[in-house]
Amino acid sequence: MTDVSASLPDAAWKTRFRRRLIAWFRRSARDLPWRRTRDPYAVWISEIMLQQTQVVTVVGYFERFLAAFPTTAALAAADEQQVLRLWEGLGYYRRARQLHAAAKTILAEHGGVFPRDVQRIRALPGIGRYTAGAIASIAWDAPEPILEANTIRVFSRLLAYRGDPARNAGQRLLWDFSASVLPAKHSGLFNQALMELGSEICSPRDPQCGRCPVASLCPTRRQGLQAVIPLPKRKTAYEDRHETAVIVRRGARVALRRCAPGERWAGLWDFPRVTVTAQRGAALRDQLKSAVASLTGLAIEPGRRLTTIKHGVTRFRITLDCREARCVGGRLLPGGDVRWVKISDLESYPLSVTGRKIGRLLE
What we know:
Endonuclease III, domain 1
């Protein structure tokens, strides 16, 4: 049986580690827009955007978002549709809705001033232990540890931890290590250096150990275990799904519906989208008619297939047929969540990535 135990390094090791890591970061840190400020609002926006999203993708979104909503008050005052439109393409749209809700909470409960107390930060919508620690340490140099995907990998290798870092025992060990290795000063700089090391050097596959500033301190490198530490995540079991997006036309307008809470892409607008079991013929037409009537209140006559888009969402691998349809009756459901929209106005609506692709086919 593999020994999964690990012990924390001694004080001398930690001192060497801190010095080498910070010196490397000061020489090699990427110039990123959120690193040019210690404004907690900007730090917060960047940390939420960077969750499960690559840095190169986030840069442009961060700059556009801050230009549109430069302060907490500006974000709190914005319409949710504006927020979602600027978030469009980043995915995980719950993050944007929680950002908006948290901004309103900061305005209502903290006078518009971002709270400094970590427990109060954690009480805001969408903020957990890692994000609260990252904001507090980067903005105010608060001595708060962090643990996210990059540092989980770095710490597991620095401890040669063979257990599962996602389980309770692994999480306790890595959080303890993160707290124990924090320097007395410059904790924000140090935490950013840790994340940079994981992102740029200590990668999941083929880590750049020859360029690593702390390679001589790493037992995983000495033992040649980089390929097995950290323990690989279980592979996702994907489910194939066939869907149809229905472009219901009435003259120069198309029907859009706002996705309801609990649905995929809640809050965004989309063409009526149906999970289908039939692939062709009368059975498919009947499924589409019934589903579109339920979703929109409209009676339709399905038409030709425009295109097919293959994409993935979480654990689903989706084949999406995009079909035109003619409106032959019915009335939009009340409440404003289904609308006739001019094709020329689609650009102002927050859509999913596939919804935007369909919209551009119609231009």
